Amino acid sequence: MRRPSRRQLAVATALLTATAAALAVTGAAGAFDSARQAKAAVRGGKAKNVILLIGDGMGDSEITLARDYTVGADGRLNMDRFPMTGAYTTYAVHADGTPDYVTDSAASGTGWATGVKTVNGRISKTPGTDKAVKTILELAQEGGYATGSVTTAELTDATPAVLASHVTDRSCQGPADMAKCAADTIAAGGPGSIAEQSVNHKVDVLFGGGKQRFDQKVTDGRYKGLTVTEQARKLGYQVVTDDASMKAAKAGRPVLGLFAGGNVPVEWTGKAAAVGGTDPQRCVTSNANRPASTPSLADSATKAIQLLEARQKAIHSGKGFFLQIEGASIDKQDHAADPCGQIGETAAFDKAVRVARAYAAEHPDTLVVTTADHGHTSQIVPLEATPPGLSSTLVTDEGRQLKVNYSTNTPGLSQEHTGTQVRIAAQGPQAYHVLGVTNQTDLFTTLREALGLD
Questions:
Q1: Which pLDDT band, with edges at 50, 70 and 90, does 45 fall under?
Q2: Containing domain of residue 331, as a range?
């Protein structure tokens, strides 16, 4: 087991000293639920379960915007209540290993999934030699753990893809999308597209969008002529497509949930930011283009945990599970300079955080980590500011006006990621490893050691 550094122990000791006093004044809104929880995090120990929550593009500005709008400037989100909070760096690398200061989701996800930094666009393969690197999910499977991945993106998008696939380029999502991955095709002796690899891995729970990728036909190999969905059924998957069928799924066989043709529609809507700003607006906490049968991220997370726990109990393995949960469209709405869509997806993600923390409260041998893959563009600016890019004025739940600015690219083009460090917070065994400023690849080591994996 990796020992905490002197600095980490000093920080943790100071934290524990402050916790008792802080509890009296932060019971409703502070960071800590109890001194016991903080002490347990510092002691370390082995985790039976790991729940990793990724808010895609969820930098500190995105968190602050959602907090200010939904619970108030002095309020606290569920993700604010972890006993251990630090930051980690997110840079990618070039093929020669030199830093690429602004990462995409493929390279950043590869960092925590494998412990190896890679080039932007690559999925769980080395930066220079383009060789597959074993992922935390693959190690967990080998160690006898149940595994799951839940996302609001396509299941073949970069963040879920890094767990159970290895391709040269993130665009190689389905059998018809392999133009940039010639060596990865089944015809060339490779593992196939991200969709094919994901089901071939027999991940116990796969929930998200991307039905269009799984509807593509396999072009070579054992399953040639079948769609990837048909391939999944051949491999024993239950295939579910809405909230009712998801909740009816039974443990014992893996479950593939395809809840949208592409990305799962967002929960909130409103006017996008504009040059010169928008009139003050309240967000609409619904989306006419989101079918009522679409499960929420929190409900998907709840069902995934139930299935994974039941699977392990049924086979009497004595082992727990590894589950990754992604709020993907925080990033996608940031790219679109859509503050209401962005806030709604952050709020939906925060409800999934609440689900994970509630489970951990009943199962304290569960390590829960929440973080982001990279920072993004939104910034809260003074009302009197006149940003050169896109901006929008919101009327928060506190009845106050708030201006948000998007200026990381020319208006009319997709807004860009930023190279900032981002928050990482945790509770449970080994949670103290997130303290201070760490590297994105350190998260892989924390997860691996918490589960006792070689």
A1: confident
A2: 48-273+288-379+421-450
